[in-house]
């Protein structure tokens, strides 16, 4: 299988009052074409920063100390703003961790989804609107027409999350970075939405970097798992192997912590 | 008794067409009644969009009901002081311009504990699993789960009698989830707290709740002792919900 993305020895620090918060301390991670790679680890271990660093969606206080992010024969950390903008949202799409906060509060949902389609694909306003409506339906939102006219604050937590998922579905990217994409969904809707994403992945053969705390989803859907701890990947391997025989003590601790009914 | 909810309704108009006339309503809360005793933990479950967060906001009087009422009694003298909330979306519920330090100090100052504030904040942070290095940061400078724990710490700092928690563990790893659950049960016993705990994670609800309420489309489907509702559910809907969660 081909690698679609290679993260090599990535170090990212945040400057904060003359000190450095060392978020990433040498991350090495490969993502293969068409695979679902789960990235798990304790809160604060660096998962979101890893995902965002791929297309450099980082605040000004972030410093890339070292490392490479190779995507399509190019180091994205060195790519110019035009190139990065072309990749962001088109080739590499995101479902952000806090959906409600990452949607634009003053734009109706329909416009937001349609405009993101028009930005990256060659579609007319009318075509984009229809595609947006389809995407909302695919993301299991009931009453999609009225949701197109709603604003984020008029939707529930899980509905906003499904709007984000719809935007990712409409983008049909090469790499989808899904950061805790279903935390506000009940199990039934969750498995339907994930099923929809998997079907699309089959059809378009994109890869998914699936960042999550939900280990039962990982067990069900991920091909491979990478465990993150304090800014480093401490263990990675086939999903079945990680759950059956974890090697790193931190991986064991995570797996042992599964709360069962 | 600490809380009584009577015949509560909240309908939101659905706007349609270029003139944006109301063409119908989302019946977010459609006739809900229940009461809550001191030291109970009421778990609320139900599918996404069934009205859980709307109910929480109605209880806090952040929304006005279209019908019915919310009545506090017993320990609750002042809504603003005695009833706390942890909102579903941490980033939206925190002031982006405020440092964590000032945010957490506020409730202590309001309680007249200026001198003890810093040491109290330190131990509170430890209890939710955060280091004091985050105190000089703004909300956007934390990870998702750190932000969620900061919200929990802030709510606890004001020592509410009733605390409404809306999906408070959704961004946390299992180790941190366990830590927060233990903290909440400890506080319930020590400080006689009452909780309303909203979550779609049935395992977690089962662990923390004394009573459980199952909601569907703005209505209560089933309500009772946690053991009974989750152990021997009466309604088909609850059975379906539990089956899916296995
Ligand atoms: N803007 C920032 N300034 C300073 N530190 C930051 C900033 N953003 C993130 N951090 C820190 O970097 C570390 C990694 O954060 P990240 O958001 O990647 O964690 P995470 O693994 O996604 O955690 P969670 O599961 O809680 O979402 C954390 O310790 C966090 O506090
Ligand atoms: N301010 C508002 N204006 C219009 N409709 C609203 C508003 N707030 C909520 N609604 C609608 O009320 C319904 C219930 O929303 P609510 O946020 O209470 O659901 P929830 O049970 O918390 O869902 P989730 O589990 O996804 O967070 C939804 O259909 C939502 O779109
Ligand atoms: Mg994160
Ligand atoms: Mg909600």
Characteristic terms for this protein:
heterodimer, A: 261 residues, alpha/beta, six-stranded mixed β-sheet, four-stranded antiparallel β-sheet, 10 strands, B: alpha/beta, three-stranded antiparallel β-sheet, 28% strand, globular, binds adenosine-5'-triphosphate
Poorly predicted ranges of chain A: none
Rg of chain A computed from alpha carbons, rounded to a whole number of angstroms: 18 Å
Helix count of chain B? Answer: 10
Bound small molecules, by name, code or SMILES, are:
adenosine-5'-triphosphate, magnesium ion
How would you describe this protein?
- The complex is a heterodimer of chains A (261) and B (246).
- Chain A has a domain at 101-172.
- Helix content of chain A is 39%, strand content 28%.
- Chain A is built from eleven helices and ten strands.
- In chain A, helix 5 (125-138) crosses helix 7.
- Chain A is globular and about 50 Å long.
- The mean pLDDT of chain A is 93.
- Chain B has a domain at 95-158.
- In chain B, the strands form two sheets. Chain B has a six-stranded mixed β-sheet with strand order 5-6-7-3-8-9, sandwiched between helices.
- In chain B, strand 1 and strand 2 (21-36) form a beta hairpin.
- In chain B, helix 4 (100-110) crosses helix 5.
- The two termini of chain B are 34 Å apart.
- The model of chain B has no long low-confidence stretch (mean pLDDT 93).
- Chains A and B meet through helix 7 and helix 8 of A and strand 1, helix 3, helix 6, helix 7 and helix 8 of B.
- The complex binds adenosine-5'-triphosphate (ATP) (2 copies) and magnesium ion (2 copies).
- One adenosine-5'-triphosphate sits between chains A (14, 16, 21, 23, 41, 43-49, 59, 61, 97) and B (141-146, 171).
